[in-house]
Each structure stands twice: as C-alpha cells, then as structure tokens.
Amino acid sequence: MTTPQQAQEPRPAKPEGRRSTGSVKAAAGMLVKEAGRILKKYSGRIAPEPAQAIRDCADALQRYRDAKQWDRAEDEAERLDELLHQHASFARKSALRETIENVGVAVLVALGLRSCLYEPFKIPSGSMMPTLVAGDHIFVNKFIYGVQIPFTTTVVGERWGHIARGDVVVFRYPIDESEDFIKRVIGLPGDTIRVDGNKVSIRRSGDAEFEELKRTKLPEKCRDDSGTQQVPHCELFEETIDGHTYVVRYKTNLDPRAGARRVGEWTVPERHLLVMGDNRNESHDSLAWTRQVEAVAADGLVSVKDLRDLTDEKLFSLTRPDDVSARGDASFDHILYIADHASDAHGLELEIWRQPVLGGEAVYRALTAGEGTETTFTALVEGDERFNSKSNAKQRERLLRIGGDVTALTVKSGDVAQDVVFRLNAADAVMRLRCGNAVCRTPGKIAEKVAEVVERWERDRSQDARQILDGDNTARYSQHWTSRSATAETFLERRYSKTGAEPVTPAGLVRLRAWRAPDEGVDLIRDAALAAVGSSRTAARQAVNEAGQDGWLVEDEQKFTYVRADTKGQVAFSLECGRQRCAGDRDVLALVRDIEGHVPSVIKDRTRLPELLPPGDIPGYKELPAAPVGERYEYDRIRLDATVRDVAYSLGVWVWLRPAEGLAGKLAALQAEIPNARVDDSVASGAIVGDGSAGHGIQYAFAVPATEVVIRMQCSAGLCPTPEVARDLAKRAYQKAHDASNFVDPAAERPQPYVPRGNVKGRAERIWLPLSRFWLPIR
After folding, report:
1. What is the pLDDT of residue 9?
2. Around Cβ 198, how many Cβ atoms within 10 Å?
3. Is the dihedral of CA 118, 119, 120, 123 positive or negative?
4. Is residue 584 domain-resident?
5. Phi/psi at 646 (5° precision)
6. CATH of the domain at 759
7. What is the distance between the terminal CA atoms of the chain, rounded to a whole angstrom?
8. Is-cis flag, bond preceding 174, omega within 30?
9. Distance CA 22, CA 34 (A)
10. Which residue, 221, 565, 659, 766, shows the most beta carbons closer than 10 Å to its own?
11. Are 688 and 678 in contact, with CB atoms under 8 Å apart?
12. Does residue 114 fall inside a structural domain?
C-alpha cells in the first residue's frame, strides 16, 4: 500500500542537455495556464504554503518567459512541474484524457471546416457528363452562398453570394434528403423554363417572352466514362446561360413516343431552384423527379366522352392552367377543356386554272360573273394604312413587286370570308382564293395572302395547290385536296371542215368541246364556255330540249354556239357551228339532238367521249387534226378547314378533396366568388349556380359529403349555349363524384421538380482526382 510520503517522492532527474527555445516557450505557456487553472479550481485542497509556492513559481516563470530568458525559464518550468506533481497531481490531466481532448478538438475543427467551408465529394454517376464523369472527386465551396448550420436547412449570410443560373451545385435530393445530388442550376425563383427536346428556353421573372438558350454544336464526339470509347448517336453542344458557358450532350436516336424526349414547362416557386444534368437525356433531375401521393384528378369527374355526349363539340384538348400537377397540394386539381371549334372565318381555299382550254379571260369572267368589286392589287396595298408608313416601306415595295403580274382582280366580301379572283397574265393562269375574315380582315391582309400565293407559284409553276397555299398560325388546318387529273382524261375537242385542212374560218368550222366529270364542276364550264364567245346566261337565248333540260344559244356573224351542262350526269359540251354548215337555229338544234343522244353512253364510260360527234353525224365534212393537250394538268383545288382553340368554347373544373375550411366553408367562399350566385338544388342539395353574366359563363359549385369533395365548374357560352347543357354536365360530375375511385388515385405519381433553397450545400468548384484533371475548374 502506498503512503502519502511515497506518493510525493521526487521523479527521476531529467537527462542532461538543454531543450530548444520553442519547446521551452510552449511548455512554459502550458504550465502557467495549468497552474492558474488548478489554483482557481482546487485551492481549497492544497495546503497554503505549497499553494503560495506554486503561485510564486508560476509568476516567476511568466516573467522569465516575457523577458525571453529561456535558460531561467526552463529551470523555473522544471521547478513548477515538480511542485504541481508533488502537491496537485490529483488535479492534473492524464495522458489518455489529454489525447481524447486533443482528438475531440481536431474532430470539431474538421467538422466545422467540412460543414461551413469546403467538403470533398465523389461523383457517383454520369448524369453531369461531359462536365463530370462517374468517379471524379471534387471540392465543394460551402460558404459561397452563406454558411449552413449543420444538420439544418437554415442558411446564415445568404447575401454574401447568390446562386446564379449555370452554377453547378451539390444539394440534398428533395425526394430522399439522405442522398446528395449534383446538377446545374437552370431556373431561379420566378423563372419559367420550357423544354422541347434539345431546346431549352427561359422566361425570366418579369419578362414577357421566352428566350432560347444559345447553343453551338461541337465537332467533338461523345465519350464514355473512361474517355476512350466513342458513344454512338450522341452530340455535344456548347450552351450559354447568363454568361456561363458549358458543354451538354444529347442522344439523337431517341423515339419521342417512348417518352425519352423531354417536353414541358415549369414555373419555379419562391426559394426553390430548377436543376438539370448536363447529360440531358440520361439525367435524373428536376424534369424527372416524382413523388407518390394520394391525388385527385378532375378529369375523372368530367371526361372527353362526357363532353362529347352532352355538348355539340367533339374535339377537345385538356390542360392544367395553373400547373397544379407540379404543386405540393395533391388534394386539389384544376383542369380546362378547350374545344377545337370549326371556324369558317379562319378557313382558306385556293383553286388554280393553268392555261385553261377556254382561255384565262373566259374563266375569270365566269368566276366573277358581275359579282364583287373589280379592283387592282396596287389598290389593295394602298388601301391599308400600315403600308403607308416609312417603317413598312420595304414591305410595301416587296408586295407591289410580287403583285406586278396580277392583271385583273375582283374581291367579293362576305359575312364569313373574302372571295378573291385574279389573273396572272404572263402565265395565262387564273386563281380563286377564298380567305376567311379572321385571316383576311383588311385589304392589306388580302394583298399579303395573294402575294404569298403568287410568290410560291412563281418559284415553281408545276406545283399543285397544296404547296402553294399555307394556313394561318392562329388555327389548325385539315387539308382537302382535289387530285390532279390530266386534262386529256376529262376533256375532248373535235373539229371539222369541208377540206379537212387548215386554215379554216369560224364560218366554215364545226367544233365540239366536251367535258366529263371535270373537277371544277360542269356549271363553271358552262359559264366559261359562254364567256369564251362573249356571252353569258343572261345574254344568251335559252333553249329547252324534249327532256326539259335547258341550254344556251349564242350567235354572231360567223357562227352559232350552243352550250349545255348536264349537272346530274356531270357532262358539259360547247358546239360551235359555222354559218356555212348551220344556216339557222334549226340546223344547230338538229346537230345538238344527235350529240345529246350519245350523252348517256358518255356518262357511263369516259372513253366514249369521242362518240358525241363522230364524222358520220356531219356528212361532207372532214375532221381536222386534234389540238395537242398532252399531259397538262389544268385545274386543282385545296381547301383548308380550320379549327381554333378558343376559351369561348371551354369548360373549367376545380376539385378540392377534404378542404381545410370544411365542405360548408369552401362552398361559402366559392359563393362569394361566383357572380350572381344563388342556391339551386336541381344538381345537388345546397348547390350554388351563377347565371353566366359578365362573360363568366354558367358556373356551378357543390359538395359531395360521401367522398368529402367540393367541385366547381365553369362552362363558357359557346360550349354551353343553354343552362340545360351546363346543368347536365354538373349532374354528370355530381354522379361520378360519389365513387372516389373515379377521381382519387391513392398512389399517384406527381412531379416534384424543384430544389428547396435550404437543401443546397454549396457550389462545385474544383476537380482534384483523377490527377490528369487535377485542380481543373468546373465550368
């Protein structure tokens, strides 16, 4: 057993030799501090004399240390150490305790540096290729955006530095915050990001228009993680956003139907970010994140089938106007159905006659027939004030140049559309353009549309109408084209004279021109044939045959002309008989009766057109060689039927599942919002209805206690022209709302695209492994 005297025996003497100045300085400082601590804390357990000795020794040691008398300081330090060992050993720290405390301090310092200054990360995947590849080691600057309090989302000093578009940041994954992700910031709070395949556009907060990010295709090839193998079907682009320039890559062999092509629009909420990986098609980023929730879907209450059943419209598009699918509240949904409504006011139609056999002038006169206002292309341009300003001088000059070949033009204005007929003299072509008033609402707009048609025609006159007429960007169009048939397939001309040789005068000529099933219709052929001989139905004599069908007879000094159109059989013919053969009406009509006797055969068989006037029907006359028709295509037509998406033909549906204010509270709030609201029990007990004044449409709001939902519907006047239509839609929704499986999905996937600001750990700045890329900055 150890006695007190044994415990205070002196320790072995220190070996010979003096310590270095640094060692003495450090030891003296620690001993003075230790002596002060012990005297302060344990002075009551040390006898007065030893305590005073320790105090005096510590004071002397401090004086020698301040005076830099290191030899004396070393001796005094030994003496103080011995005094502490003899009289205060119970208060001195053991070696183990000293080690533990030192290690603890080191750990705390390391944690502080890691949490507030810099932290190393290893890249786990290729989502940021080519900027970063799997296996890269990087340093993250954690104080650049402020200091984040460890184990919290609180950031102190955010004003020190702001997150910028284009920064590469490390953050806690919003879906599972135990994981760290690294991506590039594309959208800041208030931004709207639009992605369409490999096109990324941004509308910054406060801006009205989207701006597409600038991209330049690079000649380099995509490489795999090792950097040795080329990746097929992959392209690199240098992209720039707000001064940040970096490289992204896209796959080029993706099938849009497989969903790999990214399309969408996202509006970033306050204190959140939208991020994307540089490996755009293979990055699990904001555009792909989803969470599983119980969610309501308003289209389960009113479907497209319901709308088709209960309204006059058949084509509908569904949108969610306020992006509720991306919001955190899955107990609310808002949808808008917009009908694709047929609109004649946006419709377009173009008919083209190329070198017509009856002549361009005759066709033009038949098309106008004294209707409409004959004007000039120049007058249309000058009639629009837009083209009289200096800013539009070049446009005016261009239009007048293009319209220089329009030699005749007639405009017939209607309630729905403008009919414009015009001739192109150099090409002997006639066109009729029907342009809806929503497209051609002013003379200048008519001129622009005519110029657009003429310009395309002049580029290549062999084009059909489909390549010449284009729709307006305010509507969607479906094409209805009259296929091009060769003129020889629908038209026949036979000519006879006594000699059977040219030249021959009109008085000595018998000519038949006949059409079977012409694309432009036999009525127009009839009018053009009369116009070709300077007449019309109002000027010609009417001749009725035995079947009660009427024809028109025209005579001049050299010939008689008879024109008939069989609308039912779609056969028309024009017979010109010179006065040498036909001395009067009786001769002409006798020849006409022979022709009409062959018409039934021609109606049944196109190839029998030549039988209308065979040589045997004109004794003493010989047939002249037929004028070549060739493979010419005289006529074709394109009609563009328009549909427009207009909120005047729309239905909005809102649904709240278990609203926080309760069913009655929510209904009361909606009643205050709906104009002219009143209680109407025809749909549901306590339902609210608004009568649709002030352009709001007919509105209903009602609760379904069985499933704890409140529903609001707003039907526009176009889609619901009567209150009964709106009521039927509301009743359908009320019935379906009694079964939660119709509109509640207990395991729905909902987008969760945004990174909370507090989840951001810092900005990735340097690569420190591999050595081949040591200390490279991260662009």
Report:
1. 39
2. 19
3. negative
4. yes
5. -130, 130
6. 2.10.109.10
7. 73
8. no
9. 18
10. 565
11. yes
12. no
**Shared-domain flag, residues 420 and 538:** no
Sequence-separated (6 or more) residues with CB below 8 Å from residue 196 = 263
DSSP 3-state of 190: coil
DSSP 338-392: EEEEE-GGG-EEEEEEES-TT-HHHHHHHHHTT-SEEE-HHHHHHTSGGGGSGGG
Buried b (16+ CB within 10 A) or exposed e, 488-515: eebbbebbbbbeeeeebebebbbbbbbb
Q: 439, 474, 509: which is the final residue of a domain? A: 474
Tally of domains in the chain: 5
Q: What is the rounded CA–CA span in Å between residue 388 and residue 383?
A: 9
Domain co-membership, 464 together with 518: no
Residue pair 589/577 in contact (Cβ under 8 Å)? The answer is no
Burial degree of 389 (CB within 10 A; 0-12, 13-18, 19+): exposed
In a domain, 482, yes or no: no
- Omega into 130 within 30° of 0, i.e. cis? yes
Characterise 695 by phi-psi region: left (phi > 0), alpha (psi -120 to 50), beta (else): left
CB 576 within 8 A of CB 570: no
Contact 266, 326 (CB under 8 A): yes
Report d(CA 262, CA 36) in Å as an integer: 70
Pick from 219-228, 532-541, 655-664: least confident: 219-228
Instruction: Read off the tokens for 130.
Output: 């080519």
Indicate yes or no: pTM above 0.70: no
Q: 192 and 139: one domain?
A: yes
Q: Does 285 have pLDDT greater than 90?
A: yes
Single-letter amino acid, residue 369: A
Distance (Å, whole) CA 430 – CA 454? 11
Radius of gyration of the chain (CA): 47
Q: Judge if 297 and 269 occupy the same domain.
A: no
Give the integer Cα–Cα distance in Å for 533 and 539: 11
CA atoms within 13 A on the CB side of 625: 6
Examine the fold and report which residue of 75, 92, 109 is the final residue of a domain before the chain moves on: 92
Cα 19 to Cα 76: distance, rounded to the nearest angstrom: 13
Q: How far apart are alpha carbons 719 and 337 in whole angstroms?
A: 10
Instruction: Give tens-digit pLDDT for 213-261.
Output: 999 999 999 988 888 889 998 999 999 999 999 999 998 876 554 446 7
Are residues 142 and 284 both part of a single domain? Answer: yes
Q: How far apart are CA 229 and CA 236, in angstroms?
A: 15
pLDDT at 57 over 50: yes
Nearest CA to 215 among 197, 199, 239, 249? 239
Alpha helices of 682-760 — where are they, by DSSP H? Answer: 723-736
- Return the bridge partners of 375, or none: 409
Q: How many residues does the chain have?
A: 779
**104 within a domain of the structure (yes/no):** no
pLDDT-derived band at 38, boundaries 50, 70, 90: confident
Whether the Cβ atoms of residue 247 and residue 130 lie closer than 8 Å to each other: yes
Closest CA to 493 of 353, 589, 632: 632
Beta strands in 579-677, from DSSP E residues, in sequence order: 622-623, 635-657
pLDDT digits 0-9 by tens, 76-89: 888 888 888 787 77
- 24 and 36 share a domain? yes
Q: 55 with 87: CB under 8 angstroms?
A: no
Task: Report pLDDT for 425.
Answer: 87
**Token reading at 16:** 């010979």
220, 283: one domain: yes
Decide if 640 contacts 471 (C-beta within 8 A).
Answer: yes
**CB contact at 8 A, 565 and 530:** no
Q: What angle do CA 676, 678, 682 make, to 5 degrees?
A: 130
Positions marked active-site: 127, 183
Whether pLDDT at 12 is above 60: no
Q: Are 710 and 659 in contact (CB under 8 A)?
A: yes
Give residue for tokens 């104080």. Answer: 143
Cis peptide before 610 (omega within 30 of 0): no
| 511 and 580 fall within a common domain | yes
